[in-house]
Design goal:
The chain has ten helices and eight strands. The chain is an alpha/beta fold and about 325 residues long. Keywords: Dioxygenase, Metal-binding, Oxidoreductase, Zinc.
Length: about 325
């Protein structure tokens, strides 16, 4: 079984996505790192892979316009590996201007001067909260005067509200520096790392897909900052490369029960621990799969460590 890895292949896959604005698929996508918007390309092998001219950056520049053209979304609900809460979903309610949270440290000033202009929407945020409550899940609005929650909000300059880099960095490539016609709301994932619980996080919002709302869940299928050789397919250990390949195979199972079990079993794979010291970058896959559990699946790109998969096509 082969999956799209080159630009010509993923463009063909994007073209093949059904234009179904009456029921928009939910997507898991690789959100990358701040290196996607690096000022210049260097001779670093890693930056050449994950930087502004790498495959992921090229894909995101193709991905965003295709989503806009095919689905003409009335709003976007996005999940990021970088916003975790326990038991209660937090939903951004930022009004006419979504702030940004530079939730990284040790970078040059350039990275803290980035902009991404977008707006929220109270009605969409309240709809998200209502759907969670109807599903028996707790949820609350999170405003511009609130710290977001768990993920490291303990000291300046990272304390506060705002979209984290798992949202604004890839969105800059996907949609440009300004989105003024489509409101964007971010929702927290479940910090437990439990596949079933994060599947439920997505499933609760599946009705939004029939209401013109695009659901995106961003993470990475390989994320080990303690062993950076795993980020490159050329230097990764065999267990990790086999694990990454197993993800697209599991996601492509045609029957829901088999697909769900195969995706859950990935966390027991021999390569999982090497790929993920902690699970937060992996579980957004379950959020997207839950949101689009009814229907087919299409692997849109199989870029190593950062595939994009459409659920519910």
């Amino acid at each position: 079984m082969s999956f799209p890895k080159t630009q010509s292949e993923w463009r063909t896959a994007l073209d093949a996505l059904p234009s179904t604005p009456e029921k928009i698929p939910a997507f898991f996508f690789g959100h990358g790192s701040p290196m996607l918007i690096a000022r210049q390309v260097t001779n670093s092998p890693m930056l050449n892979t994950i930087g502004p001219e790498g495959d992921l950056a090229k894909f995101l520049r193709d991905f965003g316009p295709a989503l806009r053209a095919k689905y003409k979304p009335k709003g976007i609900v996005v999940f990021s590996a970088h916003w975790e809460t326990i038991g209660v979903r937090h939903v951004t309610d930022y009004g006419d201007r979504n702030p940004l949270l530079m939730d990284y440290f040790g970078f040059e000033p350039y990275y803290y001067q980035q902009t991404f202009d977008s707006k929220g929407n109270r009605a969409l945020a309240e709809r998200v909260v209502l759907l969670y409550k109807e599903a028996g899940e707790e949820a609350k609005l999170s405003g511009v005067h609130e710290n977001r929650g768990w993920d490291g909000r303990t000291s300046p300059p990272r304390q506060g509200p705002g979209f984290d880099h798992g949202v604004f960095v890839p969105f800059k490539l996907m949609f440009g520096d300004k989105v003024d016609d489509v409101p964007i709301v971010q929702v927290s994932i479940e910090r437990s790392g439990n596949p079933e619980e994060n599947w439920a996080v997505g499933k609760a919002l599946s009705k939004l897909r029939e209401e013109g709302i695009l659901i995106l869940a961003g993470g990475l299928t390989i994320h080990n900052l303690h062993d950076r050789k795993q980020f490159s397919e050329k230097s990764a250990s065999p267990n990790v490369t086999m694990f990454d390949q197993a993800i697209t195979v599991a996601a492509s199972k045609p029957q829901l029960d088999e697909r769900k079990q195969s995706l859950f079993d990935l966390m027991k794979h021999d390569g999982f621990a090497q790929a993920h010291p902690s699970a937060e970058h992996f579980v957004p896959l379950y959020v997207a799969a839950g949101a689009g559990e009814e229907g087919g699946v299409q692997v849109v790109s199989a870029i190593y460590s950062a595939p994009t998969i459409a659920f519910g096509i």
